[in-house]
Write a structure and sequence with these properties.
Layout (H helix, E strand, L loop, with lengths): L1 E3 L24 E4 L7 E8 L7 E10 L3 E2 L7 E3 L23
Antiparallel strand pairs: 1-2, 2-5, 3-4, 4-6
Length: 102
């Protein structure tokens, strides 16, 4: 299975639009080659090198088998993140070092 974004490439800086200093919306995510027989997907967006330890920004589950998660959308049921919210919570990018690894 492959997860990418049309907004930025693997190991690049996440555009400020998708951070808490920007519009704080999730980026477009593209999903390819889900295993045969997959009935639903789950997504956890976390930051493993946050200063206080791994920080969870978004939890979504029960996502139907789709190929694209649209910007600012909620593709399934949401679980609580480390902001104690059930929404996408973007990373901080004030120092410009927020990178994403797929």
């Amino acid at each position: 299975m492959e997860l990418t974004s049309s907004e930025f490439k693997n190991n690049e800086h996440i555009p400020s639009k998708f951070t808490c200093e920007g519009e704080d919306v999730n980026p477009v995510l593209l999903i390819k080659d889900a295993p045969s027989g997959t009935k639903s997907l789950a997504l956890i967006v976390d930051d493993p090198d946050a200063p206080m330890g791994t920080w969870v920004h978004w939890v979504v589950y029960d996502i139907p088998l789709i190929e694209k998660i649209e910007e600012g959308s909620v593709p399934g049921k949401q679980g609580a993140n480390d902001f104690r919210k059930k929404d996408y919570g973007g990373a901080m990018s004030a120092i410009g070092d927020t990178q994403v690894l797929f």
